[in-house]
Design brief:
It is built from twelve helices and twelve strands. By secondary structure, it is α/β, with parallel strands linked by helices. Strands 6, 7, 8, 9, 10, 11 and 12 form a seven-stranded mixed sheet that branches. The two termini are 26 Å apart. The chain folds into three domains: 121 residues, 3-Layer(aba) Sandwich (Rossmann fold); 74 residues; 156 residues, Heat Shock Protein 90 (2-Layer Sandwich), CATH 3.30.565.10. Helix 1 links the parallel strand 1 and strand 2.
């Protein structure tokens, strides 16, 4: 059995020793009383999970996060702070933090977060093994196998594009390379959309279930979205959203990503506004509402009527000469996934002025 290695970083002995007592029975715990000492340890050996305080003398937790990720991008890093703000969380997530937790921490809560991080670490490292494990069950796993076989060459294409970018190229060659990269990524996205749509259209398609931080999930999607330089990305995330809730994380992630990509695609200038709020609807049950609004091209009234915009392979302009390319599967995927998890998705739009998509879903409080 693989020894699970953890590094705890805090310049205060109390929290450092408390965390060691919590995890010492199940993990090989190393303690560092400064960011500098933590980096020294990380350079000597790899750690599966690092828990670091944000505010420390010398190197801060943000510095530790940045340097740890440079040493080993697969290391899961959890940041702790007694002075949590959304800006702090956003910065940590943008640098690759797996999660952030407030001090004083709840023991049961942090144990769940750590377990989830370890599980994710080992899943990522063993992804190839997991995908090939049941190759003999090709009929039932057909879509997963196809997706994997397409991912592998695409990862090679993207990887070699990045290597080419580091070589001596003239301006014309760099323009060609940028075009190759953009076309490859768009092609890959279309293939993934088709596979995902096919999978969720199957009657026996399973819904994911995990315990996760909804704010972290949204911040990661905001980090990845690419918008025009003339577009301002604005976020308004409620501080009343519980840190850990249980529900269909994978489906929610896809819907949020598709809504953000859709807004970025049709907005050349102005703003894209993203909000997330939360309300308790029953004991242990919360209704979350994510809204993505833009000042883009808007949607023709004929497509708003009877929710035609959510039909598969539908776009406002279906001609081959349209300004915005795509297959028109993104919003259909969003609607199918929302229906699948018992959520709702709706749209309001003024043609020529912009659109606003509202995605509502319910999550459960994690008692276990």
């Amino acid at each position: 059995m693989t020894t699970k290695r953890m590094l705890i970083v805090d310049d205060e002995a109390g929290p450092r020793e408390s965390l060691k007592m919590v995890f010492n029975d199940d993990y090989a715990v190393t303690l560092a009383n400064s960011g500098e000492e933590a980096i020294s340890y990380a350079q000597q050996r790899s750690f599966h999970v690092v828990i670091t305080d944000i505010r420390m003398r010398g190197l801060s937790g943000i510095d530790v996060l940045r340097k740890i990720k440079e040493i080993d991008p697969h290391t899961e890093v959890i940041v702790l702070t007694a002075y949590e703000t959304l800006d702090t969380a956003r910065q940590a997530i943008s640098l690759g933090a797996s999660d952030y937790l407030r001090k004083p921490f709840d023991i049961d809560h942090i144990q769940k977060v750590v377990k989830r991080c370890f599980d994710n670490h080992f899943f990522v490292l063993n992804h190839e093994i997991v995908l090939r494990k049941d190759v003999n069950a090709a009929k039932t796993n057909f879509l997963e196998i196809v997706s994997h076989e397409l991912n592998t060459p695409m990862n090679g294409i993207v990887g070699f594009i990045e290597l080419l970018e580091e070589t001596n190229l003239d301006d014309e060659q760099r323009d060609y390379l940028e075009t190759i990269r953009d076309c490859s990524l768009k092609y890959f996205e279309h293939v993934q959309d088709i596979l995902t749509y096919a999978k969720i259209s199957m009657s026996d398609s399973e819904i994911s279930k995990s315990t996760f931080n909804p704010v972290t999930l949204l911040l990661k999607q905001l980090k990845e979205i690419q918008v025009s330089p003339q577009v301002e990305l604005i976020s308004d995330i409620s501080d009343q959203i519980p840190e850990m809730l249980t529900g269909p994380e994978q489906e929610i992630r896809i819907v949020l990503r598709k809504l953000l990509q859709n807004a970025a695609k049709f907005t050349d200038r102005g703003t894209i506004s993203v909000s997330m709020s939360c309300q308790p609807v029953a004991k242990g049950r919360y209704r979350l509402v994510a809204v993505v609004s833009d000042t883009g091209t808007g949607i023709a009234p004929a497509l708003i009527e009877n929710d035609k915009i959510f039909d598969p392979f539908t776009q406002g302009d279906s001609s081959l000469k349209r300004a915005h390319q795509g297959m028109g599967l993104g919003l259909s995927l969003c609607r199918k996934l929302a229906d699948q998890i018992g959520g709702e998705i709706s749209v309001e739009s003024t043609f020529g002025e912009g659109s606003s998509f509202e995605f509502c879903f319910e999550l459960l409080e994690d008692y276990h």
